[in-house]
Write a structure and sequence with these properties.
The complex is a heterodimer of chains A (about 300) and B (about 240).
Chain A: H1 3-19, H2 21-57, E1 60-65, H3 71-83, E2 87-93, H4 95-107, E3 124-129, H5 135-143, E4 148-152, H6 155-197, H7 199-208, H8 212-252, H9 265-295
Helix pairs in contact in A: 1-8, 2-6, 2-8, 2-9, 6-9, 8-9
Chain B: H1 10-14, E1 15-24, E2 33-41, E3 45-49, H2 56-64, E4 71-76, E5 79-80, H3 89-93, E6 96-100, H4 111-121, H5 126-139, H6 155-167, E7 173-177, H7 185-200, E8 204-209, H8 212-218, E9 221-226, E10 229-234
Parallel strand pairs in B: 3-8, 3-9, 6-7, 7-8
Antiparallel strand pairs in B: 1-2, 1-4, 4-5, 9-10
The chains are: A alpha+beta (about 300), B alpha/beta (about 240).
Chain lengths: ~300, ~240
């Protein structure tokens, strides 16, 4: 392609945006609306998943040892636990630390009556998991270890969190599929209307001897520009809204502050920006290329 | 692949359009063209006449390769149009100027851009476009209106723009489908004079028309179609009425 043909095609693509103002606006609005919903949904789901993950990270399994177990065996058990792939962190809590913590949490001044540590056999490992759904398997393994007297866990919390995780995954896939289908339908309708208005123009170009590439290029550039603008608008709006909404929710629901751990705007937009721009430009490219193609058989 | 057949004789070399036993049938209804044989030589001026439904438009569409034949053989400017590949069609059409009854100008572009568009399609440089477009606009008498949009022009002027666009790439063949159909008698004659002038400069001109007065006055070759069949083909012919 000659350089002036390249620039001509590029210029025509940009000019088309203004030549067909209503079509351009309708297409941008459609893509923006779809990607706004997508972005909103993505931000909500990601934060929700983040909160569940944070909650999961707080779920621990407690491993108690046989009476009088040697310190070297306790260390060995610690090393064995750490080798497990589902384990993210492990803390050793001595009997003294366990008693101090219990006193501070439940007894306060009433603890003065105790002369001996009633939790003398309570040295344990606090084991944190990176995947709470693996809790049962880990517990079975821990119980099989020599020197382990008791393994305490909260099964209800683990099961609930695993269930919530699965639910988030299903709902995400479902809503994304619906949003995608609606987007494709709306966008292809808008593009079809826009192109059919210009069918005559395409026919004239073909009669004059324009190649399919020459005819298609300005439309494709136009489609990609519409996609880019259509994706940028909801990104800007969500970016503006995000911190305001997070701050409002945190201050309004202070009692839930321990549960509400939000992702930062950078964490959300690190993925949302390229994905939204990719979807916008991709839909613009495919929509315009496919629709023009139908009219090229002249 | 588009087949540019090697020519066998001088007579065949001079032949620029060849239709042999061409039939065209649409999926619905009666055949539009039946067993059409037609030979047009380089530099000829030919009128194709006939009433509505006679097959004139189908013939033009076949020559443009907008439609394909059902059977027979069709060759235009060395291209076997029954075998030409889709990607070769643009190159074929670049040697073919086309003018329509409804002008078919790009409405959102001015006169200059409409004509320049044909040059851009064949990837002429800006320098060449700036030289060729004003010169062809001068030929059709529109040098002073290059900035006007089609809606600001009369029917005759719009048809001149269409003619300028068809001619700017110096086509070998010019196809005009009812070029005076939307014009008053004065403008019709102006356009026909221009077509005659173009023909005298060496371009083969094929005009499909209903205009009896023009056909009878110009004393050119006249091919008459009726119900998809050529019923007459005469040098310096006349318009033949259906009844």
């Amino acid at each position: 392609m000659r350089i002036n043909t390249f620039f001509y095609t590029l210029r025509q693509g940009f000019r088309n945006l203004f030549r067909n103002k209503w079509f351009t606006l309708a297409s941008i609005a459609t893509i923006s609306a779809c990607l706004f919903l997508f972005g909103l949904f993505y931000a909500i789901v990601m934060n929700f998943a983040h909160m569940v993950k944070t909650a999961q990270e707080g779920v621990a399994v407690y491993v108690f040892f046989d009476d009088g177990l040697e310190e070297s065996r306790i260390q060995e058990i610690g090393e064995l636990i750490l080798k497990r792939p589902e384990v993210s962190e492990i803390n050793f809590v001595s009997a003294e630390e366990a008693w101090e913590s219990f006193k501070a949490e439940y007894l306060g001044d009433y603890a003065d009556g105790f002369t001996e540590n009633p939790l003398a056999d309570s040295a344990n490992y606090e084991v944190y998991l990176n995947d709470v759904s693996m809790q049962s398997a880990l517990v079975t393994y821990l119980e099989s270890l020599d020197g382990v007297r008791l393994v305490n866990r909260s099964e209800i919390v683990a099961t609930t969190l695993t269930g919530v995780n699965a639910l988030i995954a299903y709902v995400s896939v479902g809503i994304i599929a619906i949003l995608f289908a609606v987007s494709v339908f709306l966008i292809s309708n808008t593009v079809t209307i826009g192109i059919s208005v210009r069918r005559e123009e395409i026919t004239i170009m073909k009669y004059i001897g324009a190649t399919d590439f020459f005819v298609r290029s300005p439309f494709v550039i136009e489609g990609m520009m519409i996609g880019l603008i259509g994706a940028s608008i909801p990104l800007a709006v969500i970016y503006g809204m995000y911190n305001v909404v997070m701050e409002y929710v945190t201050t309004r629901f202070t009692m839930l502050s321990s549960l509400l751990s939000f992702l930062t705007v950078e964490e959300i937009f690190g993925i949302l920006t390229p994905v939204s721009l990719g979807i916008g430009v991709g839909i613009g490219f495919l929509g315009s290329a496919a629709t023009v193609r139908r009219h090229l058989r002249v | 692949m588009a087949t540019k057949k090697k020519k066998k004789s001088t007579a065949a070399e001079n032949e620029i359009i060849t239709l042999t036993n061409v039939c065209k049938a649409y999926s619905t209804g009666a055949p539009a063209l039946k067993d059409v044989n037609l030979r047009i030589n380089r530099g000829e001026f030919v009128f194709i006449v006939g009433d509505s439904g006679s097959g004139k438009s189908t013939l033009i569409k076949l020559l443009l390769r907008e439609l394909t034949i059902t059977s027979g053989y069709i060759n235009v400017m060395g291209y076997d149009l029954s075998k030409i590949r889709h990607r070769k069609i643009p190159k074929f059409r670049r040697n073919l100027g086309v003018v329509f009854q409804d002008f078919r100008l790009l409405k959102d572009r001015n006169v200059y851009e409409n004509v320049a568009f044909a040059q851009r399609v064949i990837q002429k440089s800006n320098k060449e476009i700036k030289r060729n477009v004003p010169s062809i606009l001068a030929v059709v008498g529109l040098a002073g209106k290059y900035k006007a949009k089609p809606r600001q022009l009369s029917g005759g002027e719009q048809q001149r723009v269409a003619l300028a666009r068809a001619l700017v790439n110096q086509p070998t063949v010019l196809l005009a489908d009812e070029p005076t159909g939307n014009l008053d008698p004065t403008n019709s004659w102006e356009i026909m004079k221009l077509l005659d002038q173009i023909n005298q400069n060496g371009t083969t001109v094929i005009v499909v028309t209903h205009n009896r007065e023009i056909v009878n006055a110009m004393k050119k070759r006249v091919v008459t179609l009726r119900k998809g069949v050529i019923i007459s083909d005469e040098e310096e012919g006349e318009y033949i009425d259906e009844d």
